[in-house]
Amino acid sequence: MSTTTTSTKSARTSTKWDVEYQTIRRQKLFSNTPRDHTAFPLLHAAVKPHVDSFNALFDQGLIDEALKDIGTHSVTDGDARERNARTPRNTLDLRVKEVLLDKSYLPSTNKDSLAREIFPAECRERGVTYRGKLRARLQYRVNANDWKEVVREIGSLPIMLRSNRCHLEALPPADMVRRKEESEELGGYFIVNGNEKLIRMLITPKRNYPMATLRPSFEKRGATYSKFGIIIRSVRPDQSSVTNTLHYITDGNVSFRFSWRKSEYLLPVVMLLKALVETNDHEIAQGIIGASNSSHPPSSFVSDRVELLLRTYKAYGLKTKKQTLEYLGAKFRPVLLTPVTLSDEETGAELLRRVILPHLGNINVSAAQNNDKFQLILFSIRKLYALAAGDCAPDNPDAVSNQEVLLGPFLYGMILKESIHNWLLSIGYQAREWIRTRSPPSFTDTKFEGEFLPKIVRKTNENIAQRLEYFLSTGNLVSETGLDQSQTSGYTVMAEKINFYRFISHFRCIHRGSFFAQLKTTTVRKLLPESWGFLCPVHTPDGSPCGLLNHLSHQCVVQTHNVDASGVEAALSRLGMTKRSARSVEDGLSIQLDGRVLGHMSVKRAREAAQLLRHWKVRDEKRIPKELEIGFVPTSNGGLYPGLYMFSGPARMIRPVKYIPADKVDFVGPFEQQYMTIACTETDIIPNLTTHIEYKPTNILSILANMTPFSDFNQSPRNMYQCQMSKQAMGTPSSNMMMRADNKAYLLQTGQTPVVRPPLYNEYGLDNFPNGMNAVVAVISYTGYDMDDAMIINKSSHERGFGDGVIYKTKFYDLAEKTGTGGRASRSKTEIKSMFGFADTDTNVPSDVLFHIEEDGLPKIGARVQEGSIIAAYHTVMFDPSTNSLRNLDGQTHYLKYKDSEPGYIDQIRLLGSETGDTPLQCISIKYRIPRRPIIGDKFSSRHGQKGVCSMLWPSESMPFSESGIQPDVIINPHAFPSRMTIGMFIESLAGKAGALHGLAQDSTPFSFDETHTAGDFFGDQLLQAGYNFYGNEPMYSGITGREFAADIYLGVVYYQRLRHMVSDKFQVRTTGPVNAVTGQPIKGRSKGGGVRVGEMERDSLIAHGCAYLLQDRLMDCSDKQRAWVCRDCGSFLSVQMVPNPYNALTGRRTVSVAGAGGSVPPSGIVRCRTCAREAGWEDSKLRVWADGEGKEFVGGENTTVVNVPGVLRYLDVELAAMGVRTTFTVD
Amino acid sequence: MSQREAYQFPSSSGGAGTGYAGYDTATGPKVTYICGECSAKVPLEKEDKVRCPSCGHRVLYKERTKR
Ligand SMILES: [Zn+2]
């Protein structure tokens, strides 16, 4: 038991935790919240990728990089159709120099508030977005004069909580509580319209690495295309990316593909090489084949193809770099939309800057940077030929080693970048529109300066931040360029707080991309060994997202910032790296850092260099950063393409392991990990081979998977189920429930700390959010109510509060919404149409309303409400300018009603003002509390994927009891175990029992027991010492007869979760109710009072059982049964008609012509078939003659009758008749 | 459950079944609320702006009835 915290104020809050309960320490943390820092740093580390990457937008200058990449947008005046560059023109240059994001503050129009900050809690309560003002420093100039500058407000940008633009950024827990937050508020999400939203992490291809790809779809691109390709996802410093692809053409040629604004373009690769640097064919050939001085003979496969490559390019007749650039510029000018004043050569260079391997230079590209691009393309061609020749294997795009993380905030920054770019374009467009009205149309117009702001900039849509708010609230990516992403929706998710496990999992969740969800193959879902330590093998849902929606292992971190890796090149140079490549890969292994070819080395030297680099890296020497990934791919027989690939950039997954020689931490990435020897435990170490060892074997598991006790004893799918179910448990979502206004929140009233838990439970501070209860569980078949995973709960336990929970529902009532004056925006007094409260002159307010509603028109706190209860009164008002007040004219009070079917209690009422603080009451939110004690049909589960439904609340006196008088809280059926093999649950039961008897917290970390030192012995001994049976069995007595059972019963303590699936939300029953207007059949949907469908399979089984009357009841009587007249002779529903009553009901006289008289005619009750009748003649007996509505007389058609038919049958009949199809029914 | 059903809402007017003629129209009733920020009692009239007069906070809670 640790007693590291002392009550003295000076002591720093300890962050060391063990497995013990630490009740006093936790109590102190609650009553005396730390003022220095959190006690649970691990919890905060879990959301770090989100927060840090948001911080990087402004701290690391990602936005500045983006602005530089956008560059200057130039527009020219004069005739747009005139293509001659020499025509004199004036140029307007536009650029955004800086973007500033403020914290969230009140608008200046609000003069009343002293505290100007808007804190997140207020946004949650008021249902608004937590955002700060975004400003842009817009600069413009005409004809290269001095830049002029204006600062424009470009909307309010949603801010990530606890980021560097959030008021909560560095607040210690004590201040967090003061700001109405959770003491351990994590941040990492946004608040949009009161909802907590986060951008989920996505898997993307590894950046700046030429990936050898086999893709059959490449063959569909054209006649000569092969399936071979090299794909490079090149990432600019602002984290936006472009994908460049090299295609292998079957004749040996290589074409280069890129996309620009969603259109694809292809170039001969040699053209690109010649455009990048001043080069010649010899240099290109040597770059691909290898330097000619090496002893190795050139491979004929490669040299033949290089020859072809260069020979076919001759057709273009472009020799110099300038010629090539001009050619490219002329072709791509309409695509890039460069101004007329820019020369073809410059336009060509602009193309290279923007889309060709921009990670090697995208701003003021130097000759050296272009050479880097040149070298990387040469390397890619060489790798492509190796792939085509079968010398190397393709890189697996589904393995984590070739993947990285797309961090949400980086995407957020990309959208902001594109929006700003579009804004510049639209200013340019408006500027051209403006000069059209001038004569002469010129930017040098004297009025231009004065009208630039009001007439040009203001005409553009300046609310740029709104696009990002839209993105967050819908998750849809609306983009002209597509941002190099493969999906357009599903980027954001609601950070649901069903319980804390669910909440924290959202931040560790990583999705493969919705594109892969539609894929029919299962290869992308496979669990590959490359994922070891990075993605949790257990924590993925079963069903459709299985394997696509993964969770990070709890020790895996995502790098979010750039590190200084400048020492790498210098160190390698000293180790004998040369710039020249060699013919054989063994002699000239390519050495790359972040996708830049540094040089070449022989394999032997490179291997040594990699080891040395690692040595320096771990020891923090020679400016080699700890985060550097050193992926040494050795030469092999058809394995991955060899090389020494190093990565230092952000968005990589890395994880700490111990470097054995130095006994220091080393951060390992997934690419290098596949070539490393990392021992899992001490016994795995192979001398002279193993370099690293895991700190803990459990590091591969996610936070939730780590919480499953003794998960190594369970069959693995059960652990997956548990990860799913712990996220559905009713628990403690947060400790500031009264400050939150969730639409729906579940709360377990009687949460406990589990007796059996790993030490990580404390390190993650999960005692702040209990998720279940310790229950005494007997495994026995006792009552007969325990079939099929049913469980019996002791009625007395239930009465003591076992599983007691409540649901909080918050509903917003906005009067402005009702009267249609728009959302919750601020409104002036004159626009207000209705107000809460009773109308002044209303004299008939029912007394029962007064009982519920107080004089302000709002209910009392604590009032019980049920369906139809009145919960607020309001009345319409008009603004009276004479008295400057709002007056009610009609004297009528209207009421708002409680619509849910389940009774609840009014827990809180909030009166919501506006940001400007100047509007009368228009909007309230009411929080209802709905008690949910466990009832029969509610779902429970242990932590081993053993879910069950409560089938009975068994009276305490009839429960079995043990010799020490213990009664179980829960009884489960022994049949739950043999097929599921959840041995972990037995161990937990043993450990829990021993822990409860001795007052111990039991460590349940997986992989801590083995064959010689078994869990059964360990906990069995503890039980023996407490005077119990070693095996956990006990003699028990029947609660009904009092006699001892023939068998001993397995009795222990197991932690049970109450799941949120409750019958009260599920039960559905109806006899009659709402029906579909067309068919007359019952509608579906529980919420609408619909029915449960008796489908075809149900119908079949009812037929098989011979339940004819039941079928008739379901499909006819309770559905769309109709009585319909039909003609027996012609078998038609449509030809029968009701004969109108020929006698006037009032006068008793016969009416001559019914239609002429007008009005409705009462039916006579006589039905005749019109088609079977003939017109009456003079010879017909008056008794047989009948008249239709027009007074025409007929004889016959009397053979009609009433039948019961389904309503849809008649509908079908009518529809068929409309199509000219006649149906005939035979009536028996 | 029996306990809950037996709960009676406390009522000041006793038998208020004789109809109702609205609250005092001239000044309006003053119902007090609690400021969400400084916990001050905020008396709010019908047309008053929704904000705390002492700190300017914009969320007010309705007070629990003590009658
Ligand atoms: Zn206040």
TrEMBL record, chain A:
<dbReference type="InterPro" id="IPR007641">
    <property type="entry name" value="RNA_pol_Rpb2_7"/>
</dbReference>
<feature type="domain" description="DNA-directed RNA polymerase I subunit RPA2">
    <location>
        <begin position="598"/>
        <end position="655"/>
    </location>
</feature>
<dbReference type="InterPro" id="IPR014724">
    <property type="entry name" value="RNA_pol_RPB2_OB-fold"/>
</dbReference>
<dbReference type="InterPro" id="IPR007120">
    <property type="entry name" value="DNA-dir_RNAP_su2_dom"/>
</dbReference>
<keyword id="KW-0804">Transcription</keyword>
<dbReference type="Pfam" id="PF04563">
    <property type="entry name" value="RNA_pol_Rpb2_1"/>
</dbReference>
<dbReference type="Pfam" id="PF04560">
    <property type="entry name" value="RNA_pol_Rpb2_7"/>
</dbReference>
<protein>
    <recommendedName>
        <fullName>DNA-directed RNA polymerase subunit beta</fullName>
        <ecNumber>2.7.7.6</ecNumber>
    </recommendedName>
</protein>
<dbReference type="Pfam" id="PF04565">
    <property type="entry name" value="RNA_pol_Rpb2_3"/>
</dbReference>
<dbReference type="InterPro" id="IPR015712">
    <property type="entry name" value="DNA-dir_RNA_pol_su2"/>
</dbReference>
<comment type="function">
    <text>DNA-dependent RNA polymerase catalyzes the transcription of DNA into RNA using the four ribonucleoside triphosphates as substrates.</text>
</comment>
<keyword id="KW-0548">Nucleotidyltransferase</keyword>
<dbReference type="GO" id="GO:0003899">
    <property type="term" value="F:DNA-directed RNA polymerase activity"/>
</dbReference>
<feature type="domain" description="RNA polymerase beta subunit protrusion">
    <location>
        <begin position="46"/>
        <end position="435"/>
    </location>
</feature>
<keyword id="KW-0808">Transferase</keyword>
<feature type="domain" description="RNA polymerase Rpb2">
    <location>
        <begin position="1090"/>
        <end position="1135"/>
    </location>
</feature>
<keyword id="KW-0240">DNA-directed RNA polymerase</keyword>
<dbReference type="InterPro" id="IPR007645">
    <property type="entry name" value="RNA_pol_Rpb2_3"/>
</dbReference>
<dbReference type="InterPro" id="IPR009674">
    <property type="entry name" value="Rpa2_dom_4"/>
</dbReference>
<dbReference type="InterPro" id="IPR007644">
    <property type="entry name" value="RNA_pol_bsu_protrusion"/>
</dbReference>
<feature type="domain" description="DNA-directed RNA polymerase subunit 2 hybrid-binding">
    <location>
        <begin position="705"/>
        <end position="1088"/>
    </location>
</feature>
<dbReference type="InterPro" id="IPR037034">
    <property type="entry name" value="RNA_pol_Rpb2_2_sf"/>
</dbReference>
From TrEMBL, chain B:
<dbReference type="InterPro" id="IPR029040">
    <property type="entry name" value="RPABC4/Spt4"/>
</dbReference>
<dbReference type="GO" id="GO:0005666">
    <property type="term" value="C:RNA polymerase III complex"/>
</dbReference>
<comment type="similarity">
    <text>Belongs to the archaeal Rpo12/eukaryotic RPC10 RNA polymerase subunit family.</text>
</comment>
<dbReference type="GO" id="GO:0003677">
    <property type="term" value="F:DNA binding"/>
</dbReference>
<dbReference type="Pfam" id="PF03604">
    <property type="entry name" value="Zn_ribbon_RPAB4"/>
</dbReference>
<feature type="region of interest" description="Disordered">
    <location>
        <begin position="1"/>
        <end position="21"/>
    </location>
</feature>
<dbReference type="GO" id="GO:0008270">
    <property type="term" value="F:zinc ion binding"/>
</dbReference>
<keyword id="KW-0862">Zinc</keyword>
<protein>
    <submittedName>
        <fullName>DNA-directed RNA polymerase core subunit rpc10</fullName>
    </submittedName>
</protein>
<dbReference type="GO" id="GO:0003899">
    <property type="term" value="F:DNA-directed RNA polymerase activity"/>
</dbReference>
<dbReference type="InterPro" id="IPR006591">
    <property type="entry name" value="RNAP_P/RPABC4"/>
</dbReference>
<keyword id="KW-0804">Transcription</keyword>
<keyword id="KW-0479">Metal-binding</keyword>
<keyword id="KW-0240">DNA-directed RNA polymerase</keyword>
<dbReference type="GO" id="GO:0005665">
    <property type="term" value="C:RNA polymerase II, core complex"/>
</dbReference>
<dbReference type="GO" id="GO:0006351">
    <property type="term" value="P:DNA-templated transcription"/>
</dbReference>
<keyword id="KW-0539">Nucleus</keyword>
<dbReference type="GO" id="GO:0005736">
    <property type="term" value="C:RNA polymerase I complex"/>
</dbReference>
<dbReference type="InterPro" id="IPR039747">
    <property type="entry name" value="RPABC4"/>
</dbReference>
